[in-house]
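User: I'm new to structure prediction. If I give you an amino acid sequence, what do you actually give back? Let's try with this one:
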Amino acid sequence: MSLNDLKTSNESREGESDPSSTLAGVNSERPITQLESACMSCGQNGTTTFLITKVPHFREIIVSSFACAHCGNRNNSVQFGGAIQDKAVKYTLKVKDLKDIERQVVKSDTATIIVPELELEIPPESHQGSLSTVEGVLRQVVDGLNQLQPERKKANPEQADTIDLFIAKLMKIIKCESEFTFILEDPAGNSYIESFPGNLDANLKFEHYERSDYQDGLLGINKAIHDKLTARASSIRPAAEAESYDVSIKTEDIKEVINFPTNCSICAAEGQEKMIKLDIPYFKEVVIMSFYCELCGYRNNEIKTGGEISAHGKRICLLVKNKVDLSRDVLKSDTASLFVPEIDLSLGPGTLGGRFSTIEGILYTVASELRNNAFLHGDSADPAQKEKMRNFIANLQELLELKREFHVILEDPLANSFVQNLRAPEIDPQLEEEIYERTPEESERLGITSLEKKPSGETN
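Assistant: Good question. You get back a string of structure tokens that encode the predicted 3D arrangement of the chain. For your 460 residues, that looks like this:
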């Protein structure tokens, strides 16, 4: 990849960090590289600082930052060296104060940003991938609008006045004089808005969803080929060896293992997708799909529950007292939220994806993700935030070491999650299950509302 591929043509803008601070928060064993390169503003030589690193949740990225000592021009960009994710992602942030507007934002080349209160939409093609903040993104818009204002005032004064009014509205929300909504939607699933650890982050919501055919086309994904490979599964004979699966169930419970060819999303080589159907006692049938590429080593696992859509949601509460409780099987669907109230841990729907593990395995994964989160460590991270994170991880470690009892709560609007009952079919005194009515917002988010609508022309 050439140096020109790492650069952006954005002009210098207020509020953007210098190259060292831009890259300081990125956790990487690879050294930072600095090269002399021509400044696109004044033509003199400036310095491009860049590295290739693996950021949690986003795979491998290329972080680049340019600074010119002659004219002060600065810019930074982020490009993704990893794969397109399995699902699209949408973040909705309610910006209420300075803490919200200072949240870090990773915007990929395929992401769209929307501020509905101002009817502002930033399409993917207008800005390259960037590592910034909510304020930085909005100031970039202001700088872009201001660039040609002197010429507009001469050629079209009315249009220039309209733009001045819009800039004034932008500056008002940048200064947090009024609340607004900041939406980041990325069909490739490679964008991110910083969330606050520990307590439930009420101002930030995110969801993963299946891409439309149109979005697949924008990303260059040939859905027809993908469907053709998947359809071949019916003609593939079941594999004979079920013992090769490392799952926390008895192998005799596995009805069959099905292999079918599919392309690796990282290197495009043909690999084998394996699928098994399991009947979990006192729950329902689930499907576990696993992919491994022998060429590049990429692995991916996915869990789907079978059966019809549940009419109600389910809330499961487990009191963890000992090692036996930590070893209980857990099926957390991708629509479930997870809470540990003793340490204010809250994981929203989609976090960690669908997962079949144990209580200990789930909590260990959370601790590992937090330790490796590049946005919460490094010189550029807020000291108070870093200290809060260290205390939170220490409290989580105490739970894993069983220094005190705690509760694990799974809340699933589709009732597709499960915690093992050690006394089944009898009642387990440490395990409580509650059926609840879904809220209209949950039904809308899950697409249930549209399924419940009557066909046009139908009468009562």
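You can read the tokens as a compact description of the fold. Here is one thing that stands out. The radius of gyration is 25 Å.
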